[in-house]
Design a protein that fits this description.
The complex is a heterodimer of chains A (261) and B (161).
Chain A lengths: L4 E3 L4 H8 L4 E4 L5 H6 L7 E4 L9 E4 L2 E5 L4 H7 L5 H7 L5 H6 L2 H7 L6 H8 L2 E4 L3 E3 H4 L14 E7 L3 E8 L6 E10 L2 E7 L7 E2 L1 H9 L24 H18 L1
Parallel strand pairs in A: 1-3, 2-3
Antiparallel strand pairs in A: 4-5, 5-8, 6-7, 6-8, 9-10, 10-11, 11-12
Chain B lengths: L2 E6 L2 E6 L6 H8 L18 E4 L2 E4 L12 E3 L13 H8 L9 H14 L5 H7 L10 H11 L11
Parallel strand pairs in B: 1-5
Antiparallel strand pairs in B: 1-2, 3-4, 3-5
Classes of the chains: A alpha+beta (261), B alpha+beta (161).
């Protein structure tokens, strides 16, 4: 790991200021960034830790909207969101392993936007809103491809607002070594119809499976999916699974998620 | 160099570290507490697990400066006050929950974190909780038995293998 200066601001405003420095990089829980730094795949001059910002941590429910601070670890979401949004809590409780969940944060995961991460599926599948230090971004506008997001340089995710759906479920086919999703499907039934978000499958990152959403909006049952062909698109093909295998998994897991929701 | 201060096993400690100094480096090289092991250094194996403010953390994947003011417990803090083995440690000895022993500090810390959260876990819950702790001797069966015993349950209830 190359050397860098380390700062740990106490407020979002201080963090924004620190991130304006040249080659400054925000640090969430570090469960992806620290391994990346060790491999010398990143070489920031300043690391700005967000862990000391109290206003960015916590889970709160108000009028059907669950708000999670950007610095909230997965383990906290798994515990504190269980009553209000069990599908989201279960997803958070299945990321990585217990020690990773103690440190990794929702904001860090979303800022990184790994194409196989779990949280992007929940955010897109719920139609959540990403709140940053300067604006609000709808989930549909936020994810812009593998490791690409709508965030500007130095922009910090301070919170994520989830409208709690009528019912929802996340079905993950875990890659057993990395514990990332080989394919993961988040389904939700909302007042505005069904949403289906898929992670792990596409080289473009998380996406909504429009045909399945249409079928499920007519009737939210696994049977509604029967006639659908698996989704097409730029499916990932690697030693863990071919593109065809992943596409097949998307359809199977969507059915299971709907049945379990 | 920046200064860091924290409490380790109930004792106030401090030292000068670089920004890039990992918690495990501060423990092992800064404080000379070598009970916490570095296995893979890529946050996969769990040999370096310690407790930070009561929850398990891979100390190879956290910066010392990020934990300024934190309460840390390491394997050195797991023994009883009189120096005898703590409950989880004793169960690992009784049930031969180790072979080469390299993964043991992390296994004991993860097991203790599990028992703090779930005092009587099932065999399946133990195996799931320990998925981030790898034993390259593949000694998992006796590790699971040890955790069952440490929770006051009968380890003979799981299949002999």
């Amino acid at each position: 790991m190359y050397a860098f200066d380390f700062v740990r601001p106490k407020t979002v405003a201080e963090a924004v200021k620190a991130l304006a420095a040249e080659d400054a990089q925000a640090l969430g829980g570090g469960q992806t960034l620290i391994p990346t730094l060790k491999q010398r795949l990143a070489a920031p001059a300043v690391l700005v830790s967000l862990s000391g910002i109290a206003e960015m941590s916590g889970v709160s429910l108000s009028g059907g909207t669950l708000t999670i601070g950007g610095g909230t670890p997965h383990a906290t979401v798994a515990k504190e969101a269980r009553a209000a949004y069990p599908a989201l809590a279960a997803l958070a409780g299945g990321i990585g392993d217990p020690a990773v969940r103690s440190r990794g944060t929702i904001g860090g995961s979303l800022a990184n936007n790994d194409p196989s991460a779990c949280y992007p599926a929940a955010v897109l599948g719920s139609g959540a809103t990403i709140v940053t230090d300067r604006r609000e971004i709808a989930a549909d506008d936020y994810f812009q491809g593998m490791f690409a997001t709508a965030l500007e340089p130095g922009e910090i995710i301070t919170a994520v607002r989830f409208p709690v759906p009528e019912k929802a479920h996340y079905e993950k086919f875990a890659q057993p070594a990395s514990r990332f999703a080989l394919v993961g499907v988040f389904v939700a039934r909302t007042g505005q119809g069904a949403r289906v978000a898929v992670t792990g499958a596409s080289a473009d990152g998380v996406f909504r499976w429009a045909e399945a959403e249409k079928a499920l909006s007519g009737g939210f049952s696994a049977a509604a999916l029967a006639g659908l062909a698996p989704p097409t698109g730029d499916m990932i093909s690697d030693l863990h699974g071919s593109a065809e295998y992943r596409a097949h998994l998307v359809k199977v897991l969507t059915g299971r998620a709907v049945a379990a929701a | 160099m920046p200064k860091v201060a924290m409490r380790v096993n109930g004792r106030a400690v401090s030292g000068e570290v670089e920004g890039r100094t990992l918690l495990v480096q501060f423990l092992r090289e800064g404080l000379g507490m070598t009970g916490t092991h570095v296995g893979c250094d890529t946050s996969q194996c769990g040999a370096c697990v310690v407790h930070v403010n009561g929850v398990p953390v891979k100390s190879c994947t956290a910066f010392a400066l990020d934990l300024d003011g934190a309460e840390i417990t390491t394997i050195e803090g797991m023994a009883n006050a009189d120096g005898s083995l703590g409950r989880v440690q004793q169960a690992f000895q009784d049930h031969h929950g180790l072979q080469c022993g390299f993964c043991t500090p992390g296994m004991v810390m993860s097991a203790a974190a599990l028992l703090a959260e779930n005092p009587t876990p099932s065999e399946a819950e133990i195996r799931t909780y320990l998925e981030g702790n790898i034993c390259r001797c593949t000694g998992y069966h006796n590790i699971v038995k040890a955790v069952l015993a440490a929770s006051g349950q009968d380890p003979a209830t799981i299949a002999a293998e």
